[in-house]
Amino acid sequence: MKAAVLTVAMAASAAVLGTGPAASAAQACPANSICGWSGTHFTGMMRSFPAGAGCVNSPLALRSVANTFPGGVGVQATAHVYAGSGCGGRLLAVVRPGDRVPVLSAPGTSVLLTV
Questions:
Q1: Which of 29, 88, 77, 103 is nearest to 55 (CA)?
Q2: Residue 57: which domain range?
Q3: In a designed cystine with 35, which of 29, 45, 87, 105 is the match (CB 3.0 to 4.6 A)?
Q4: Which positions make up the signal peptide (predicted)?
């Protein structure tokens, strides 16, 4: 009985502290990629965007974004996330190599991808 209570308490702690699957979801973004999720904190449906593709309208309303390109030497891929389609409207985030934005202030509709 004590073991069952301890297991439940540990699972609840993991959920509160963010150590479960949702906390590591950004790792689901492949290396050297720019990814966006439909949910905050890298949850929900994920979409990968090609670096250097220019302006791309997202099929998902983006709520979080990660850039898994390494900073420093190499490809300096950057994503500019916009509230409007066609890379218009308010700029919500500039996501540089190694950056993660767990919560966008509004849904992202389009992404300008530069290298």
A1: 88
A2: 29-114
A3: 29
A4: 1-25
Give buried/exposed letters for 4-19 (b at 16+ CB in 10 A, else e): eeeeeeeeeeeeeeee
Global pTM value: 0.76
| pLDDT at 107 exceeding the cut of 60 | yes
Name the strand (E) or helix (H) holding 4. Answer: helix 2-17
Tell me the mean pLDDT in the region 12-35: 58
Average pLDDT over every residue of 7-18 = 36
Residue 74 lies in a domain: yes
25, burial (CB in 10 Å: exposed 0-12, middle 13-18, buried 19+): buried
H-assigned helices in 20-86: none
CA of 111: how far to CAs of 12, 40, 98, 114, in Å?
A: 36, 17, 17, 10
Query: Is residue 17 in a domain?
Result: no
78, part of any domain: yes
